[in-house]
Amino acid sequence: MQDAFNEGAVAIGVDIGGTKIRAGLVRRDGAVLKELTLPALAEKRRVMDQVFLAINTLRMYGEETGSGTLAGIGVGSAGQIDFERGSVHFASDLIPGYTGMPIRELIEKKYALPVYVDNDVNVMALAEHELGAGKGCRHLVCLALGTGVGGAVITDNRLLHGARGGAGEIGHLSVDLHGPRCICGNRGCVEVYASGTSIAGRYREEIAAQDRALMKEAPADTRQIVTRWLDGEPAAGKVMEDAIAALGSAVTSLIHVFNPQAVIIGGGLAEIGEPLFAPLRQRVEATAMASMRQEVRILPAELGGGSNMIGAALQVWVYGRERAAAAAANANEV
Ligand SMILES: [Zn+2]
């Protein structure tokens, strides 16, 4: 690790998801100079080969266009990421053999640059905190509503990682003691009601309860279910009301635990906007302690689909500066 931090001009941000890798050459102000998307698993290529291919392409682009010094490489990845080690502590089988992958070590071996690796929702929170809806907030909670439900917590301007990077797994916050069993082993987790997968599954169950013959035509796509809900269809309405109730209950508990200034919600489902945010705010208004809810704002994420990639890159500056400051303080003590 270097002592003095080279601010550089650009950093590479890599967002590793279950199906694709999105990578970009990013400036400190969040501007993306070049971006590319690759499948996470291409034929005969492993996920890290795809990551190296993305890094090499972006490095070459940066050199050819004179984009400036490369300050480092940041990775945001699906799965439980051990931030201290920069490795995958646990991942589902979506990417075979991914659990245990020493991402930081592998990248550091190839490039003599600082490398940081964190969970994808954590880096999204970092991006929103630095440049988006959470700018200026010392304390915030972030939710990402996608295929699953992800979360991240920033308190006193620091991301909470926990012992092995598992902190902030808001999707597995239980909102119903007697609710359906979740894949994590608990019952009634937010994810059981508000993830894209659960919304589609619950909608099919609702339709089947009415008429099994209609089940074949039930959409599996969350956007279509949302459209039906907004058109006033009762089955879609019930599923979406449950999803919002579960989210509301979770947000209230998070407000009580962390006393944040903002709760930022991103991901595909959040793109619905006010039809989701208005009833969610009402629910929180009705259930959270007055002394805490007055200060908290419930806001949509601002940075959109590229936020994980941008946040991944921002780690290089945010943590690089912290490490340089810590090293300088140590040097002064000696
Ligand atoms: Zn769970």
Largest sheet: 5 strands, mixed
DSSP strand content: 15-25%
Distance between the termini: 18 Å
Task: Please identify the structural class as seen in this structure.
Answer: alpha/beta
CATH topology of the largest domain: Nucleotidyltransferase, domain 5
Whole-number count of domains: 2
Per CATH, the superfamily of the largest domain is ATPase, nucleotide binding domain
Order of helices and strands: EEEHEEEHEHEEEHHHHEHHEH
Low-confidence stretches: none
* Mean residue pLDDT: 93
Ligand kinds: zinc ion
Instruction: Assign a percent range to the helix content.
Output: 40-55%
What is the spatial order of strands in the main beta sheet? 3-2-1-4-7
So how many helices? 10
What is the C-level CATH assignment of the largest domain? Answer: Alpha Beta
Describe, in plain words, how this protein is organized in 3D.
The protein folds into 2 domains: 2-127, Nucleotidyltransferase, domain 5 (2-Layer Sandwich); 134-302, ATPase, nucleotide binding domain (Nucleotidyltransferase, domain 5, 2-Layer Sandwich). Strands 3-2-1-4-7 form a 5-stranded mixed sheet, with helices on both faces. The model has no long low-confidence stretch (mean pLDDT 93). 41% of the residues lie in helices and 20% in strands. By secondary structure, it is of the alpha/beta class. Bound molecules: zinc ion. Zinc ion binds next to loops.
